[in-house]
Amino acid sequence: MLHRFKSDIAGITPPERFTWPFHYVPHPLSLLAAEQIQLEISTRKEWADEIAAGKMFGVLVVRTPSGEIGFLAAFSGNIAGSNMHEGFVPPVYDMLRPNDFFRREEAEISAINRRIEALEQSAEYREKLNAIELLRAEHQHILSEDVPHLTALKEQMQQCKSSYTDQADWQAKMVEINASTQRLKVRQKRLSAEIMAAEKALNSDIEPLQIERRQRSAALQERLFREFRMLNARGEVRDLCDIFAPTPQQTPPAGAGECAAPKLLQYAYLNNLHPICMAEFWWGASPNGEVRQHGNFYPSCNSKCKPILLFMMQGLEVDDNPLSAITPPEPKTLWEDDYLVVIDKPEGMLSVEGKSGVQSVEAWARNRYPHSSGPMIVHRLDQSTSGILVIAKDKATHKALQEQFISRSVKKCYIALLDGIIEAQKGEISLPLKLDYENRPRQMVSADGRKAITRYEVLEVKDGRTRIAFYPITGRTHQLRVHAAHSQGLNCPIVGDDIYGFGGSRLHLHAARLEFTHPHTGVLLKLESEPEF
């Protein structure tokens, strides 16, 4: 499985510490290893269609006990229905082996699925289902008739006391109204009970099978995760259930342990190979909804891989998280009075406090204005985005400003530099977005996402890049970055975007103009800031 470099690496100095896999620039040795594997992938004709649809690969540069430097290669998941392919490390646990417990139990669960499907397609089931639909229709019809009667009876009850002067007559009328109300409620309850009984009878054969399927699936998943016994550099072993137990999610997500990075480290430890550096790259088309650039390098995912890799890297000298080492410059004040302050946020500064320890606007504002009350951050900019940000000095101002953002009466303009040429001079992008839970904080395009609309206008095209003005109508996380990079958007990532593009020294996105009404004076404030790029 150990590959030898075909290029001369004598002049390349290996890194002193191992790659921080969640945010990195590939080392030259990783780049050479990736190039070699990419050429190898192109020769696998039997993989062509599957790889064209997109697959994540990884390379791990290692040192042998004799001091030789070589590298390992891996892919995430499987290819062509198999985990085992020449030139690539094996899985941590091969669940696809013939007669493996996973395949046997999976076959049993599939048999249960077929039994459920057969029951649901039977004539008897269809007849019962139709009967329930008729009962439900009858229920709705009676309900539509009863509701006005109940409303009228309630009105009579309210008017009754003032309408009757004789106490006996009033009590008799109340008894009559209550009896009518109870008859209607009893009829409704009877029909609801009939529907529930019919549904229970309908599923009497299916429900036990569904319970069995759920229980067997959960037991199978746990047993599988127990088989993934991960190693670290100290020689310690922990299975996936134990690794994920202390995390917020507590249980491993589906596919945990099957990504390229854990496979590579596991094989290295098992074969006494010392990890030097690592990189993962995407090969092929971008998946539906996601933004993945062919041939681009990506960090390891947070949901599946981070808990695993943090354990597996114990015992290695690992690079510090580069994001935690960022020390952004002080924000510039663009406008200020007793109620609010508008700043020019530098690139690399967080808007609100985070776990990384990087300086935030929130902490800066609390320190600068210690007597301010209530929340101060009115809206947010990504850490990588620079530009105009509004801060409130008291609770009432904060609430009034937020209402303007929520009602979309605030006018915003961002300037960006795109890595490519946009043909249309202006237009609108409408792509709904939602969080990619397995790859936080990445966002993905999805029909069930939140509405996201961006208008744009091309300002200049030069040297294969487009300078553009974005006018976001909505304010979703990473909205401009995804709308720029996605194939259904502009299909041109923002220069320097290390999540949806090709990375670089900085993200070329700047909040350049902001217009809003001062919540106390009623004056329209128009703030501008020129980007540094």
What's the N-to-C terminus distance?
A: 45 Å
CATH architecture of the domain at 324-528: 2-Layer Sandwich
**Sheet of most strands:** 9 strands, mixed
Counted beta strands = 17
Number of helices: 12
Average predicted confidence as pLDDT:
92
The proportion of residues forming helix, as a percent range, comes to 25-40%
The named CATH superfamily of the domain at 324-528: Pseudouridine synthase
Beta-strand residue percentage: 15-25%
| Molecular shape | globular
Radius of gyration: 31 Å
Ranges where pLDDT stays below 50 over 5 or more residues in a row are none
* CATH first level of the domain at 324-528: Alpha Beta
Q: At the third CATH level, what is the topology name of the domain at 324-528?
A: Pseudouridine synthase
Structural class, please?
A: alpha+beta
Q: Element order, helices and strands? A: HHEEHHHHEEHHEEHEEHEHEEEEEEHEE
